[in-house]
Design goal:
Distance between the termini: 81 Å
CATH superfamily: Tetratricopeptide repeat domain
Oligomer: single chain
Order of helices and strands: HHHHHHHHH
Strand content: under 5%
Number of helices: 9
């Protein structure tokens, strides 16, 4: 009986330990976002950005991570149907993983399915509101849908999180020109 109680007590401690580990990981990602916003150079920002992407890609079980890597290979090879299957599986297994939704949104965008892409971006942002990649992607979706003002607003939101986003200044100028007529 005593060993049974000890086992039960140990089992009850496991979720708390897992929760503490998750909180430490969240602190780490929070610190990365602070460092991203304060990065003094483009090079420093790129290094922090890479760490954020890595953290996003390492979420989920080993099976989810394997599916993500496979889906990304398919995406790079423009094997969009196969990539879609992989990211569908990621979402089915781990709907809480924001990057699964974001990658599937990318596939939908490349297939010209802009509403599906926008819907998956909304799911991404519901799970990770600081997802600058999803916001930049939303900018492209809205631009493709013929809404330059919405594209501009989405990109400004991405830059508020990641001020040194690669190509950010040029894209911002182009979107301002399209949406507001600035710089014509």
């Amino acid at each position: 009986m005593a060993s049974r109680r000890a086992l039960l007590a140990f089992a009850l401690l496991l979720p708390a330990g897992a929760l503490a580990q998750r909180r430490r990981a969240e602190l780490s990602i929070d610190q990365l976002f602070e460092a991203l916003k304060a990065a003094p150079t483009d090079e420093a920002a790129r290094a922090v950005e890479a760490q954020i992407w890595q953290a996003w890609l390492q979420q989920g079980s080993p099976a989810v991570q394997l599916l993500m890597r496979r889906g990304m290979r398919h995406l790079q090879a423009r094997a969009l149907d196969e990539a879609l299957e992989d990211f569908d599986a990621v979402i089915a297994l781990a709907p809480e993983v924001a990057e699964g939704w974001n990658k599937r949104a990318t596939v939908y965008f490349l297939r010209g399915e802009h509403e599906n892409a926008a819907r998956d971006i909304a799911e991404t942002l519901a799970r990770e509101p600081r997802h600058f990649g999803a916001l930049a992607g939303l900018s492209h979706v809205r631009e493709a849908q013929g809404d330059p003002l919405a594209a501009l607003r989405a990109f400004e939101a991405a830059l508020a999180i990641h001020p040194r986003l690669a190509g950010g200044e040029e894209r911002l100028k182009e979107l301002r020109r399209k949406a507001l007529g600035e710089g014509i």
